[in-house]
Amino acid sequence: MMRKLxxxxxxxxxxxxxxxxxxxxxxxxxxxxxxxxxxxxxxANDDIYELLKSEEFLLENFNFKNPYQELERTLQLILLxxxxxxxxxxxxxxxxxxxxxxxxxxNDIIKYINNxxxxxxxxxxxxxxxxxxxxxxxxxKIIEYISSSVIEIARKNKIExxxxxxxxxxxxxxxxxxKLVNLKVKSFQITVDGGQKYHDxxxxxxxxxxxxxxxxxxxxxIQEMIPxxxxxxxRTNVGEENYKFMEEYIHESIINFGKCENILFAFxxxxxxxxxxxxxxxxxxxxxxxxxxxxxxxxxxxxxxxxTASNLCYASIKNHYVIGSDGLVYKxxxxxxxxxxxxxxxxxxxxxxxxxxxxxxxxxSTETEECKSCSVLPICMNNRxxxxxxxxxxxxxxxxxxxxxxxxxxMLEKQNLITYEIGIEV
Length: 426
Prior knowledge:
Layout: E1 9-13, E2 17-22, E3 28-32, H1 39-44, H2 46-54, H3 68-71, E4 74-82, H4 103-119, E5 126-133, H5 140-156, E6 160-166, H6 174-182, E7 185-191, H7 196-202, H8 212-222, E8 231-238, H9 240-243, H10 246-257, E9 263-269, H11 286-295, E10 320-323, E11 328-330, E12 342-346, E13 352-354, H12 356-363, H13 369-372, H14 386-392, H15 405-414, E14 420-422
Parallel strand pairs: 3-14, 4-5, 4-10, 5-6, 6-7, 7-8, 8-9
Antiparallel strand pairs: 1-2, 2-3, 10-11, 11-12, 12-13
């Protein structure tokens, strides 16, 4: 039988080596051109053939499993526990018309989770809560209340539980951080938009004052107490105005946090998310700036996280909902004011009163013939961003990074995230 790689394996090469990356399962193999000048000669080796076969690189006996089957085994709720914010970032898309989640709504959410797990235990392996806003730490008491209750539900039902948080970091002092760690919050995303001068223009308090010093002060105190299984992602939104200051910002950040392996840097192109038109950069800055961090000894968010099916958008997955402070139920956090995103509400007693027709717009997407032959199908499924697909009113919406897969694979090498290295001299 002819030995052949399956369609989801992408090959990238540099001067010395070839890297095979499998978009089906996130596994990668790097091998030396000296030992194996061609892919055919690599596959022809019997020992390597067995490895490729066991890691599903080969067309032979390959059986594609829809990634949503696994993703739907998590009950995920993104909870907007406070829809106001102590910041007024210039590019923010939120309107801050609502306030804190009430105890009554919190109890409805707890009842919903309890009933869903109790009545459908075999459907789920995990409960995941994501704390979001507004600014979630403006309602810490409700976070503590819901967390304690859901942790107990998970314990009783012998199901895994974890949480994550997106916060501006202003209120994340060591005392609050430790509370959240105790409540099984495993990851935090905090935005720092460059050095103090630029950050304090973009990410300001309601009264117009800067926020940089307070955030950095909190992080400097926290970095000494981060457990090994918890990480903080420092996100930087990069536009035309702050791009030219990125080298200085990276250098300063490495001095502050470069020794902490649990603080990870991530860079994203700024978009026109709010009412103000931001000055955007056309080129993708992620690779250039992440490389600079690595070269200076810092740590970056692993690119592998965006190169596996587990990174498919939450809005495209069944059993994944956004619940607002007033009990409204959505699919997407970005389109809070879009009619087809408002599914319904959580009712008294924890019953989910939503439109199944509206939900189907987000979770049901059919792969086109072009999709079926695409190497990145497992991490896209023609629904990587259902919001963009819906707004484009198109049967097909390709992921924006489709033409950057070679750069992403080479970043795995820089981040020392290659699964197997064969015949590589160190």
